[in-house]
Design goal:
Blueprint: E1 7-13, H1 20-25, E2 34-40, H2 46-52, E3 57-61, H3 66-80, E4 85-88, H4 100-108, E5 114-118, H5 124-127, H6 132-149, E6 161-164, H7 165-170, H8 182-192, E7 197-201, H9 215-237
Helix pairs in contact: 6-9, 8-9
């Protein structure tokens, strides 16, 4: 708990057995109340390891639903468990769990409802092993996105994110893609909804065991990011309307 707020860490996992335990051991359990892991049909022993190291909430997808589909399962479960502050941490140890206290403090003290761990703030991205083509693509896409969505972030492509309950219950994330572009759709919804976003400097770590998408998947992701940004621009200008920007329907509002 942090000032009476329940803190939940969610772990989107796919073949994460080599790095899961190391990641889990660095989670600050003096602040974190619950950990949820979603195993997206891994071919290794991720789910068995998760249970053996003490993760009580393990969701298992029998068929691979994708990175976005994994997050949907995690956020829905976190909300069902009463999470007030929800932090997505990759179990591949690419993002350090040691930033969790800072992210919790920012949201828990109601400074910002969303926090991103940015690898671009500072000068550590390339030194930390980010491939040059990914760095260049990151900078180009971020510049384009800042213009089209009328916001200013150092990067939109980090996988280290923390959200208040209010944000998760008021954006229609279940309407988003099940693929990697889910992350950008979510940020687009948050910005369109008028929520402010904080960024904290996050060390960059690229190593053999860390998950990463190949060049072809990166290109597909980049095109998806541009699509989301242009759609956001059209929605903001009132030229078009997209369902992803609609408010999610609460259970009590649903017609039985």
């Amino acid at each position: 708990m942090y000032k009476g707020k329940k803190v939940i860490v969610v772990l989107p996992a796919y073949n994460a057995a080599l790095t899961l335990e190391k990641t889990y051991q660095e989670i600050p359990f003096d602040l974190v109340d619950e950990v949820i892991l979603c195993d997206d049909a891994s071919s290794d022993n991720t789910k068995e390891l998760a249970r053996s190291i003490g993760i009580n909430h393990v969701i298992v997808h029998e068929k691979n639903k994708g990175y976005g589909g994994n997050q949907k399962s995690l956020y829905n479960k976190a909300l069902a468990l009463g999470g007030d502050i929800v932090i997505m941490l990759h179990p591949d140890y690419q993002y350090t769990p040691k930033l969790i206290p800072a992210m919790v403090n920012i949201i828990g003290d109601e400074l910002f409802p969303v926090v991103l761990g940015s690898r671009i703030l500072g000068t550590g991205a390339l030194k930390g092993g980010m491939p040059l083509y990914k760095y260049i693509a990151n900078r180009f896409l971020t510049m384009t996105q800042n213009f089209l969505v009328n916001y200013k972030l150092s990067e939109y492509h980090t996988g280290y994110r923390a959200f208040s309950r209010e944000v998760l219950t008021n954006i229609n994330f279940n309407q988003n893609s099940d693929d990697f572009v889910f992350d950008n759709e979510m940020l687009s919804q948050i910005i369109f909804g008028g929520y402010t976003i904080a960024e904290v400097t996050c060390p960059t770590k690229y190593f053999e065991e860390a998950s990463s998408i190949n060049f072809q998947r990166s290109a597909t992701y980049g095109l998806g990011v541009l699509r989301v940004s242009f759609n956001h621009f059209l929605q903001r200008m009132g030229v078009a309307k997209f369902r992803m920007y609609e408010k999610p329907v609460k259970e009590k509002e649903m017609v039985k």
